[in-house]
């Protein structure tokens, strides 16, 4: 039976695709990625970077826009980890990115299919600052992506963005480039060395593995077993933010935002339960 992806391709409209770039090694990304409850392939993407290649079921089968799904996923990964997450996405009409980092408001930019900029210049400067890009040379390169250019379509803009990211260590595996549909990206990812499959293993195992991964990082002092006064504060904040995010996602049938809210609620509830049941010595 033909899939929506194949029907889209036959109509001559490019099928959606997406990549998630995490500023961490695959060993740190794998536990957090399981919380998204989506099968993905994980590979190294340069020194200190990893790339996740999703199957794409939420936008191919459920009809949810790829940008909404990826924004939710990037947010879900970033709130539970001490490293930023960059979502790259594209479909027949647009292409763009979303950068999520901790509890900060995500920042992103969009280009129309013909390459016409459809974002705010300030977003590019915020993007550069959060990733530690050069405030002069790299920002100049990013500014070029916000100016009209009849010779550059949306996919060319995305390639230009990735070229700038190489200066902070990003090196995507050969063949893993914007423009391919989800299945094409997975086909390329499957032949990469040291590729690993990320599968949903249930909330208990996924949370335990994810918390183990961040315990030794910058979030360590905030975790409940660290014994610091900040852990209950973070737990309450996670629950307070996670509940409306989950409700918002349910109302809009957004799997990405439901995942983000669920991660926040699970982390917050786990931390509060630990704080209530463990009395300091």
Key phrases:
single chain; 281 residues; alpha+beta; 2 domains; seven-stranded antiparallel β-sheet; 11 helices; Membrane protein
Summarize the structure.
This is Membrane protein. With 281 residues, the protein is an alpha+beta fold.
Topology as H/E string? HEHEEHHEEEHHHHEHHH
Please tell me the total number of domains: 2
What structural class do the secondary elements suggest? alpha+beta
The average pLDDT is 80
Level of helix content?
40-55%
Percent strand equals 5-15%
Largest sheet features = 7 strands, antiparallel
The gyration radius over C-alpha positions equals 19 Å
The order of strands across the largest sheet is 6-5-4-1-3-2-7
Ends apart, CA distance between termini: 62 Å
Could you characterize what this model shows?
This protein has 281 residues and is of the alpha+beta class. The protein has two domains: 4-196, no CATH class; 219-277. The chain is built from eleven helices and seven strands. It has helices at 4-10, 26-33, 57-60, 66-79, 121-131, 137-144, 154-165, 182-190, 203-215, 230-251, 255-277, and strands at 17-22, 40-44, 50-54, 85-90, 94-100, 107-112, 196-198. A seven-stranded antiparallel β-sheet has the order 6-5-4-1-3-2-7, with helices on both faces. Strand 2 (40-44) and strand 3 form a beta hairpin. Helix 2 (26-33) runs antiparallel to helix 9 (203-215), helix 4 (66-79) packs parallel to helix 11 and helix 10 runs antiparallel to helix 11. The radius of gyration is 19 Å and the shape is globular. Residues 1-11 and 213-227 have low confidence and may be disordered.
């Amino acid at each position: 039976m033909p899939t929506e992806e194949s029907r889209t391709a036959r109509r001559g409209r490019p099928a959606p695709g997406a990549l998630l770039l995490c500023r961490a090694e695959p060993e740190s990304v794998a536990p957090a990625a399981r919380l998204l409850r989506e099968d993905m392939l994980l590979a190294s993407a340069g020194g200190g970077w990893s790339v996740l290649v999703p199957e794409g079921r939420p936008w191919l089968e459920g009809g949810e826009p790829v940008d909404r799904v990826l924004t939710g996923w990037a947010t879900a990964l970033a709130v539970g980890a001490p490293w930023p997450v960059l979502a790259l996405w594209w479909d027949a009409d647009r292409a763009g990115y979303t950068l999520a980092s901790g509890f900060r408001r995500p920042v992103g930019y969009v280009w129309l299919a013909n390459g016409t900029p459809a974002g705010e210049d300030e977003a590019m400067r915020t993007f550069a600052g959060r990733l530690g890009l050069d405030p002069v040379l790299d920002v100049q390169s990013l500014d070029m992506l916000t100016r009209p250019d009849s010779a550059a379509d949306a996919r060319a803009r995305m390639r230009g963005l990735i070229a700038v990211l190489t200066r902070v260590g990003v090196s995507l595996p050969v063949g893993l480039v914007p423009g391919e549909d989800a299945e094409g990206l997975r086909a390329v990812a499957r032949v990469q060395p040291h590729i690993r499959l990320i599968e949903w293993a249930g909330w208990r195992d996924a949370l335990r593995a994810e918390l183990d991964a961040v315990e030794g990082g910058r979030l360590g002092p905030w975790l409940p077993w660290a014994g610091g006064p900040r852990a209950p504060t973070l737990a309450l904040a996670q629950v307070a933010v996670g509940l409306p995010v989950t409700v918002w996602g349910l109302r809009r049938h957004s799997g990405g935002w439901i995942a983000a809210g669920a991660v926040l609620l699970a982390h917050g509830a786990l931390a509060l339960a630990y704080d209530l049941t463990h009395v300091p010595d």
